[in-house]
Write a structure and sequence with these properties.
It is built from 14 helices and 17 strands. The protein is of the alpha/beta class. It folds into 2 domains: about 55-295, Type I PLP-dependent aspartate aminotransferase-like (Major domain) (Aspartate Aminotransferase, domain 2); about 300-395, Alpha-Beta Complex (Aspartate Aminotransferase, domain 1). The strands form 5 sheets. Strands 5-13-12-11-8-6-7 form a 7-stranded mixed beta sheet, with helices on both faces. Strand 6, helix 5 (about 125-135) and strand 7 form a beta-alpha-beta unit. The termini are far apart. Pyridoxal-5'-phosphate binds near residues 46, 47, 105, 127 and 205.
Length: about 400
């Protein structure tokens, strides 16, 4: 028996709820203060993001990884829905992989590129740089196009390198470079890569589910994303949507046991959604709920519209307050935006951050090496009215102005 007493005062409700539990016939009545499980602030970050209460509540149950309820009823459903979200073209399949998004990138690079092959990495930010680091760690031959952090790659550049080095077999690029918020020209680059019959790997971590894209139409062979970005799940696993005929060539290529993308896929295919090693069951269940909520919102197009309008409200409000965007507007994605830090001597990011956090908003430091900036994301369970409230909170937190 469990009795929940909610204390009347608004102030007390902020702190928590008093729960009186009759434990069993011989123990005394226990009283405990439960933490308020609603979010106290919005995460305006590159991930993990603010999730809905219903997504978080989906985790309040334990699951057996051996049961059909979990494997067929949750994992297989997710795998199918992911493929549907990614493309209308036949021949694609999906694999889920434990770990943060980087683990899925590493699993893909490490499983897909054969020993005698060569990878071209397009690098215009921290996540492109990371793909190069992965290739280095795994001893994979590679060439990096170094663009710095504020330049967009061009398809002509990629074409030139592919035409001058025939040993390159695979190309990897980030879709939305979360370092700055820049959207890379995926259609044009894929065109160049596929017309030369190379394998295309796209890190669409921070854009998949938030920006419409049919990977089959572009001929993308492997696309990587994770649970805690635009699908608005909680962190714990990543996933890869793959052209099945290409994935099938990858048996025995992996450079790591736990990150063997092919073997993970084979296990899921043969055993109806069974993961090879312990799966993050609660995260997976929450993701299933998050996919339902994406559908309820109206799918990727509707979510894109929400994010895009969030971003426009953010930029218009910030510019009115005197902030300047790092990138030209033509390069912006609707995912995250970088702003130059104010030049005033009194300005200190940590202090600004704390003032905003007190008002219910968490922003993020910049990651650009040669410019002092900070970032504000607008993905997650964040809505237009939140962005308007944020602008008011920022105005009230400009202690240096
Ligand atoms: C978030 C993100 C990743 C993965 O980061 P993790 O911290 O490993 O989850 C990779 N690439 C891009 C573009 C990202 O935005």
């Amino acid at each position: 028996m469990k009795l929940l007493l909610i204390v009347g005062s608004g102030d007390l409700q902020q702190f928590g709820k008093i729960v009186i539990v009759r434990r069993n016939w011989y123990s005394p009545i226990g009283i405990k203060i439960m933490e308020n499980l609603d979010n106290q602030y919005l995460l305006l970050t590159p991930g993990p993001l603010s999730t809905s209460r219903t997504v978080r509540e989906a985790m309040l149950k334990d699951w057996c990884t051996w049961d059909d309820e979990y494997n067929k009823g949750i994992v297989e459903v997710i795998r199918e829905q992911l493929v549907e979200l990614a493309t209308g073209v036949e021949g694609y399949t999906s694999v889920l992989m434990q770990g943060s998004g980087t683990a899925s990138v590493e699993a893909t690079i490490g499983t897909v590129v054969p020993a005698n092959a060569k990878l071209l990495v397009v690098n215009n930010g921290a996540y492109g740089e990371r793909i190069g680091q992965i290739a280095h760690y795994l001893n994979i031959a590679h060439t990096i196009i170094e663009l710095g952090e504020v330049a967009q790659p061009s398809a002509e550049q990629v074409a030139e390198i592919l035409d001058s080095d025939a040993s390159i077999t695979h190309v990897a690029m980030v879709h939305c470079e979360t370092t700055t918020g820049m959207l890379n020209p995926v259609e044009a680059v894929c065109d160049v890569v596929k017309s030369r019959n190379k394998i295309m790997i796209l890190d669409a971590m921070s854009s998949f589910g938030g920006i419409p894209l049919d990977i089959g139409k572009l001929g993308i062979d492997f696309m990587i994303s994770s649970a805690n970005k635009c699908i608005q799940g909680v962190p714990g696993f990543g996933f890869v949507i793959a052209k099945q005929t290409e994935l099938e060539k990858c048996a025995g290529r992996a450079r790591s046991l736990s990150l063997d993308l092919y073997d993970q896929w084979l296990c899921m295919e043969k055993n109806h959604g069974k993961w090879r090693f312990t799966s993050p069951t609660h995260t997976v269940r929450a993701f299933h709920q998050a996919l339902q909520e994406l559908q309820d919102e109206g799918g990727v197009e509707a979510r894109y519209q929400r994010y895009a309008s969030n971003q426009l409200i953010l930029v218009a409000g910030m510019e009115k307050l005197g902030f300047k965007c790092l990138l030209d507007k033509s390069l912006h994605s609707p995912i995250i935006t970088s702003f130059y830090s104010p030049e005033a001597d009194e300005y200190d990011f940590k202090k600004f951050y704390n003032l905003l956090k007190e008002k219910g908003f968490v922003i993020y430091p910049g990651k650009v090496s040669n410019a002092d900036c900070f970032r504000i994301g607008n993905i997650g369970d964040v809505h237009n009215e939140d962005m308007h409230r944020l602008i008011d909170a920022i105005e009230a937190s400009m202690y240096w102005a």
